[in-house]
Specification:
The protein is mainly β. It is about 5% helix and about 35% strand. Strand 5 and strand 6 form a beta hairpin. It is elongated. The protein starts with a strand and ends with a strand. This is Arrestin-like N-terminal domain-containing protein. InterPro entries: Arrestin-like_C.
């Protein structure tokens, strides 16, 4: 996997020192992230009214794969932003982990001459794991921390 810019801190010196795109080895890599819910916007609370409609706020993780058909995969996670309730209540402080498996199906298509890459049924894949310490947020709240993060593990043969 090639990153357009290096992650803030992956614990690997060559990754930290890189000034441009880097290629990651097929192993697990973790990237911290943070976000702020703007407090100057009039955002309605997250809700799902089934047939009547819904309001959702989404965190999108894009896994951009160079040199493949389709180019990138993405995972989306709902981030409930809730107003007019006490989000300090313990019910909203349950850690949340979302895991998505992304197959690299484009890698199995073969080369320009129609030759396959030895497809024996194995499809290379990445596992994307996002950890959030709670699931209720309000406007203006800083949403970052030492154990927040996105973890990407890739497998190939």
């Amino acid at each position: 996997m090639t990153l357009p810019t290096p992650p803030r801190d992956d614990g690997e010196e060559d990754v930290k020192k890189s000034k441009g795109p880097i290629t990651l080895d097929a192993k697990q890599h973790s990237f911290e992230f943070e976000f702020v819910i703007p407090n100057n916007l009039e955002l309605p609370s997250f809700m799902e009214l089934f047939k009547e409609g819904m309001i959702r706020y989404t965190l999108t993780c894009v896994h951009d794969k160079a040199h493949t058909l389709g180019g990138s995969s993405k995972c989306e996670y709902n981030v409930p932003i809730i107003e007019r309730i006490d989000v300090s209540d313990s019910r909203f402080h349950v850690p949340r982990e979302e895991i998505r498996e992304i197959p690299f199906e484009a890698l199995m298509m073969g080369d320009a001459h129609g030759h396959g890459h030895g497809n024996d049924g194995f499809v290379p894949k990445a596992i994307v794991r996002v950890n959030l310490p709670k699931f209720g947020y309000v406007r203006g709240e800083f949403a970052g921390g030492a154990w927040w993060g996105v973890s990407i593990a890739t497998w190939s043969r």
